[in-house]
Recover the amino acids of this structure.
């Protein structure tokens, strides 16, 4: 088990390196004049060809890509000084450069925004599972009955509504139309500062993500559970004289959890990388909103850092999924 | 409680193993219906049989003949909301058709247990073999501690011939070989000393040598526990080795029923002849061809009219008129053998068997006659 984890971590590390190379190359070769956004910004849109050349030269775009990549990676590991157009700034490790828009180190901003995104993601994902999985199991156990059909069709209709519309309507009704006390002021307050306000400000985004996501998890858990309950070993468990509860949960759910865990890991990763609509609608200063604004502003260091962050999160989530998977299924452990 | 005479009961024991006890399991006029995607099917109709402790009943038939469905009914494993079960099933003196789920749960795996075919699928892949055995033990020994149950699991694994049972008890099913998995399955079936053991094709997924070991094991354990055994199979070799009595099923009905000797030496129903013809014989000439039964098993949604076997029966022209197609033959006493029953319109099946069937499937026996 330990050797397996180490092996996976080493493999994951190399994937991160590979991803960092691709992202670096993308932002190197992609824009026609990679220095122009910063030049425009700092010269108040009066970026002459001469000024642009100064920026291009000082930002290293005239040097070979590999030496600049190594500088970038060294900055992440050890920090570095960045000199652009004659102005030198110290960028402590891990250095992802300075945001063009705010002139602050990208890492610092990422760190500030991360708790908000993590809070939204974990709360929403927990609600997915808490709401979706038990309803799915209930539907699976009543397969073919009116209850099952009603649940399935309700969730089908709910999940066909676009998420942004659903979240927007939820926000609109709760905060503007009904003005539900305590919930109307959404946003992120650090947990350490005021736990009650933290929860109150995040409750709506959690509900939006949770209710919407649970529709998928209901269908998913239902399908997975129906499959598990039709296995031969379930018949064996019943033939042993075990109580129905033991048959359904100990024997059925254990097997049905495997595909659910896989999807859940990927979904959690996606949420951590940023919930753009949720953050935008409920006014939460998280990673998703930040990345969205950075793309609009052509704030290359931020876009680059969020892309890399997303890749790392997805790799870690996949590793976690595989670990949970092998904990659930002993047949995976040996291979 | 009315006493219903059943065919099995009236069968005299020809062999030395005469059972003095009353039948432990009595199935009477059992009918099982349930809906499928194609429509409502009658998987079992009007089935009656009985088994005494120490005795083995073999149920033979093709897939879809109702042999497994009738046995699942004995354990009450059909979904009561979806299936309709009529008739009577008595275990000991307890009527179980219509019995509550908690009554059934107390019986399952305890007084009556079942061994399934394909132990790889029938054992839970995520739990240790020993844990699954212990779970079966504790389901009916509520006061037993985990340690007691584990000790019992090791003891049972040892009893069915698993080497190093104290180590293998912590293995997962996929770490066992096919034969060992089936042994573990048997150990699980016997862990609560059941009075009735139903083995559903227990050797189908195994190779021949392992098959023989498993059958020997089952026989030894039966002698030891004095249980009634039902063995479901399509393999007449298994029947010949194991069963005292045989029930041949076709399209959900009993078509022939008698002692193993009666059925193997003078069968009187063309479907049984077909089953005998399709058994390979290792001593026969390698050029000898197996004679398959023509056609396919019948649809249970729209079963054939009259005798369900008539579309595939090569002897139906010997029955006058259109009787095979229009009228279902009753299960009546056969020409030879007391208690031997058959469901067929043929007037003189013994002569047809001797003159037409036997020369084809076992010419050496004809010469001896």
């Amino acid at each position: 088990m330990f050797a397996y984890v180490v092996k996976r971590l080493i493999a994951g590390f190399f994937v991160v390196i590979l991803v960092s190379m691709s992202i670096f190359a993308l932002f190197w070769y992609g824009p026609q004049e990679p220095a122009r956004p910063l030049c425009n910004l700092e010269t108040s849109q009066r970026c002459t060809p001469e000024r642009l050349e100064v920026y291009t030269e000082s930002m290293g775009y005239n040097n070979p890509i590999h030496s600049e990549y190594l500088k970038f990676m060294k900055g992440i590991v050890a920090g570095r000084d960045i000199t652009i157009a004659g102005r030198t700034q110290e960028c402590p490790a891990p250095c992802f450069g300075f945001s063009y828009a705010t002139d602050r180190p990208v890492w610092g901003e990422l760190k500030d925004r991360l708790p908000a995104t993590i809070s939204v993601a974990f709360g929403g994902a927990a609600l997915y599972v808490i709401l979706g999985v038990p309803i799915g199991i209930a539907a699976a156990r009543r397969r073919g009955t009116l209850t099952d059909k009603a649940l399935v069709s309700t969730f089908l209709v709910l999940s066909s509504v676009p998420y942004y519309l659903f979240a927007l309507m939820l926000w609109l009704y709760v905060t503007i139309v009904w003005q539900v006390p305590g919930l109307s002021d959404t946003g992120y307050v650090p947990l350490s500062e005021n736990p009650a306000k933290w929860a109150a400000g995040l409750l709506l985004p959690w509900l939006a993500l949770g209710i919407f996501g649970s529709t998928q998890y209901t269908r998913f858990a239902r399908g997975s559970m129906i499959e598990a309950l039709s296995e031969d070993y379930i018949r064996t468990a019943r033939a042993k004289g075990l109580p129905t509860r033991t048959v359904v949960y100990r024997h059925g759910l254990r097997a049905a959890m495997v595909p659910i865990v896989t999807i859940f890991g990927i979904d959690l990763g996606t949420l951590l990388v940023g919930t753009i609509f949720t953050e935008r609608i409920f006014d939460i200063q998280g990673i998703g909103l930040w990345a969205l604004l950075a793309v609009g502003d052509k704030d290359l260091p931020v876009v680059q850092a969020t892309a890399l962050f997303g890749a790392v999160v997805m790799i870690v989530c996949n590793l976690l999924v595989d670990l949970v998977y092998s904990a659930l299924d002993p047949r995976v452990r040996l291979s | 409680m009315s006493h219903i005479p059943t065919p099995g009961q009236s069968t005299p024991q020809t062999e030395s193993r005469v059972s003095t006890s009353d039948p432990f399991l009595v199935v009477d006029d059992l009918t099982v219906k349930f809906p499928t995607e194609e429509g409502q099917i009658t998987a079992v109709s009007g089935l009656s049989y009985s088994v005494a402790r120490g005795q083995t009943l073999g149920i033979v038939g093709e897939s879809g003949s109702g042999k497994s469905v009738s046995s699942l009914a004995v354990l009450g494993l059909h979904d009561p909301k979806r299936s309709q079960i009529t008739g009577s099933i008595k275990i000991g003196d307890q009527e179980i058709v219509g019995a509550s789920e908690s009554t059934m749960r107390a019986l399952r795996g305890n007084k009556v247990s079942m061994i399934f075919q394909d132990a790889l699928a029938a054992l839970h892949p995520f739990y240790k073999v020993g844990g699954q055995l212990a779970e079966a033990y504790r389901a009916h020994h509520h006061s037993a501690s985990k340690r007691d149950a584990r000790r019992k699991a090791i003891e049972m694994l040892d009893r069915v011939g698993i080497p190093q049972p104290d180590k293998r008890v912590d293995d997962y099913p996929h770490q066992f070989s096919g034969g060992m998995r089936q042994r573990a399955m048997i150990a699980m079936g016997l862990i609560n000393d059941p009075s009735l053991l139903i083995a559903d094709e227990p050797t189908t997924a195994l190779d021949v040598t392992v098959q023989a070991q498993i059958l020997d094991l089952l026989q030894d354990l039966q002698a030891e526990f004095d249980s009634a055994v039902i063995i479901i199979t399509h393999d007449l070799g298994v029947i010949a080795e194991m069963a005292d009595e045989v029930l041949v099923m076709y399209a959900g009905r009993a078509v022939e029923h008698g002692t193993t000797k009666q059925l193997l030496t003078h069968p009187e129903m063309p479907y049984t002849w077909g089953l005998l013809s399709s058994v390979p014989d290792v001593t026969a000439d390698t050029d000898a061809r197996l004679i398959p039964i023509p056609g396919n098993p019948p649809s249970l949604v729209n079963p054939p009219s009259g005798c369900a076997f008539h579309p595939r029966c090569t002897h139906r022209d010997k029955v006058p008129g259109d009787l095979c197609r229009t009228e279902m033959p009753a299960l009546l006493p056969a020409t030879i053998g007391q208690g031997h029953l058959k469901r067929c319109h043929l007037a003189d099946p013994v002569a047809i068997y001797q003159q037409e069937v036997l020369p084809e499937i076992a010419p050496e026996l004809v010469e001896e006659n």
Notes: Chain B is about 35% helix and 20% strand.
